[in-house]
Structure formats: C-alpha cells, structure tokens
Amino acid sequence: MLKNKFLALSIISVMLSACGGGGGSSSSGNSSSSGNNSSSNSNEVKAELFPNGEAKLFSYTVDIDYEQEKLDFDKSEWNIEKGILLEKTKNPIFFNHYVTETNGLFVPETEQSYRADRGIRNSFIHSMNSTTWVTSPYNQAGFNDLKFTQKMREIDLQGVRIVDQFAPVLITMYEFEVNNGSSPELGAVSSQLVKISDKFPKGAKCIQTQAFSSNQFFFEFEPNTEFEVPDARVLQDWADTVFDAGNTKQTVPNVEVWGKIRIGSLLEHNDDPSAPEYYQFALEYQGKVYHTYPQKPEWNTDEFVEDLKKQFRGAEWFKSVVVPLGKAKEDQFMASVEAKMRSQCNYYNAEAAKSVDSVLSKVKK
Length: 365
What we know:
Blueprint: H1 9-17, E1 26-27, E2 57-65, E3 70-81, E4 84-89, E5 97-100, E6 104-106, E7 120-128, E8 132-137, E9 148-156, H2 168-179, H3 188-195, E10 205-214, E11 218-221, H4 235-244, E12 254-258, E13 261-267, E14 279-285, E15 288-291, E16 293-295, E17 298-300, H5 301-314, H6 316-322, H7 327-341, E18 347-348, H8 350-362
Antiparallel strand pairs: 1-2, 2-3, 3-4, 4-7, 5-6, 5-11, 7-8, 8-9, 9-10, 10-17, 10-18, 11-16, 12-13, 13-14, 14-15
Helix pairs in contact: 1-5, 2-7
C-alpha cells in the first residue's frame, strides 16, 4: 500500500528461513516540507528546504536475494516544490487508488501523468517540522481530507557501520554466530556484505520515521487485472460469484456510496460460530468491479521491533543456534537486533548518501 518505510516483516520471515538468514532494508516513505520559500521573482522557483535545512534527501530500496545471492537497489531523490513532495527514481512505483468517505476517489500520479524530469508527485504538504510531518497523498483532484502523520527523528550517523543500514538481520545473525565460536557458511553476496566495515563520516545524518498514522479509514484498490473481478459489471455480479463459490453468507451485498464510488461488503462464510467475522469488499469503477481493502495504517517503532523479535523466536535458525546457548545469549541476541533496528533510517542527507553509494558499489552482484 504505502511506500513506507521500514523492513517488510513478511520479507524478513523468508530471509530467516534461508540458510544464513539476513535482512534487506527498504528505506523510503512520505516526506514533506515546512514552507514555501518563493523567490522575489515570481517566475523563479526557489528550492524548498526540509526541516533539517537540506534541499534534497535520499532513500534506498535494497533487495537482497539470499537464495540466488543477488543484490539490487534503487535510489530515490526527494525534493519539495510548491508545497508538493517529489520523488525522482529510475524505477518509479506508483501508488494505488484510494477512496475516502468524504471526497471519494483519489487518483494518484500515474504513468500517463508522470514526468521523469519532475519525478512522482508523492504528497501534498500540510505541515512539517523536525519531529512531525503531516501530508496528504497526491491526487489529481487536489483532495486533502486524508492525512498521514509521521513522527520523525534525526540521527547522527558518524561512526555507524554503513552496511547495517540495509542488511541488519544478516549482520546481526552473522556476528552472533562468529562471536559464539561458529563459522557460518555464506554465499557470494552475503560474504561480501559481512566483510564491509566502512563507517559513516562526520556530517552524515539521516531521518527516521518512528511512528505513522492515518486520520481516517480509506479503501485501496488499483484498476488493473490483479484487483478486477472477472465478468463483473456491478456489485451484484461480484456477490453472485463469491456466494456461488461458497465464500460468503450473503446473496445481496451491503452497499455504501463514498464520494461517487459504490462500495459493497459481504460477510464471509465460516462454519465456526465462535470465530471472528470477516468481510470481503469490492467497488464499482468505470463499468467494472474491483476487489478493495479497508485501510487505516498505524504503527510505531516499538511495535515494529517487538514484531521482529517475535518472528526471530519462531524461526528455525533461532531455535537451533541461539536457544541452545541459554537465556542470557537469547537476551544478548535480541538486544543486538533491537539496537540495529532502532538505528534504521528512511531518508539520508547528501553526505550519508555518498557513503551508502560507495558501499553498494563495492558489492559484486
């Protein structure tokens, strides 16, 4: 849904199950600006600054395939112009469509409206300071009732090991095994990463998202074949299809209109009366029906770290390598995991980005 932010926990699970483990870090998110610093010449647009005084910030999406031993990454450049956050990247990823109860359909930047020289129009800016950013997802109609709030913290990276930023799980596991007398077997990319000891220099800083929240529920979908309900033109067609398949209890959907978008819900079939009730949702859009999903994202760093610890405790690697060494070693390992994850960044200043670029260039893919 949202190009958020931290390591995807579902991806971590896959890496933990692999021999040697590891963690690819996705550093991206929604930025915003504190104000419009317009030039006295109305025909000249002066760059707007982030709260830390930077005209540009940088983020990275790093994908480490530990089975194929491949590393790919994409770097984004973020800047602000006329109160809109812009993202320039070689591989643009466009947001899904959103629907809110008040304004209805949010149509984001699309391949048709996108310009590479400008970048993706990511967000409208409501307010921004050193600790809190409030934005609305960019949409072509200019709606701004849907607001995302991010709690932020600036981190001085001087002396921090660079590779910890995009492979924290791998490094944590490797260091634990080595410090406890093991010699883990690593593939080509993993063995390169654990040997890179470069650290960030003076002046390298980053911004970390510590919490994220939305001011309201919204529905998310994309008008493509992945979301489309085959052969359905109205919500009743969808209801008939899923009922005939035995997936729902209702033959007629409950329908609400958000903006001008008709959204239907159906209670899922469940033979266990003690189980919680779940619903399926779909909406009508341009003569077709699409699956849609209600969203109200909210998370913080503490929850993220605890979820990661929980996944570690359930991983076979943890059970076979860490648990046999006793409770003290378990606590030591978890403390190391927490320390690395709490130092993860979402945006880097130019000095820090140069260092990340240098390290990534050393890895032979």
